Amino acid sequence: MHKRGKIMNKKISLIGAIVAGAFLAGVAQSALADEAAIAAGEKLYKRERCETCHGGNLQGSAAFPNLLTSPKTADKAAFSQIVLEGKGAMPSFKANEKVSKGIEELYAFVSSKRAAAPK
């Protein structure tokens, strides 16, 4: 291989390593952001006393939905609408600034528990 070809191969390898490193850094940063959102959602769940009806394990009771299995908690839009607008015995939390601002984190927390629940 010519000298020019070797230099080109080294440049390509270096660029590949940089791109891979940037990708991995982005993935790690995304995972940290997800963990932060989940932790914030768990804090909100506890602070707003969601466990009063849905339980500390999110499994609900005879009168209140199981957040781990309800199809409505699997869909972000449906989850947000029910939490913010209320439905049936579920009160509206739209006027609760902490909940309305933290709905993404609350959904992240419920989704993480849902994903980890035994099938």
TrEMBL record:
Gene3D superfamilies: Cytochrome c-like domain. GO terms for molecular function: electron transfer activity; heme binding; metal ion binding. This is Cytochrome C555. InterPro entries: Cyt_c-like_dom (IPR009056), Cyt_c-like_dom_sf (IPR036909), Cytochrome_c550/c551-like (IPR051811). Residues 36-114 form the Cytochrome c domain. The lineage of its organism: Bacteria, Pseudomonadati, Pseudomonadota, Gammaproteobacteria, Methylococcales. Residues 1-33 form the signal peptide. Keywords: Electron transport, Heme, Iron, Metal-binding, Signal, Transport. The keyword Metal-binding applies. SUPFAM superfamilies: Cytochrome c (SSF46626).
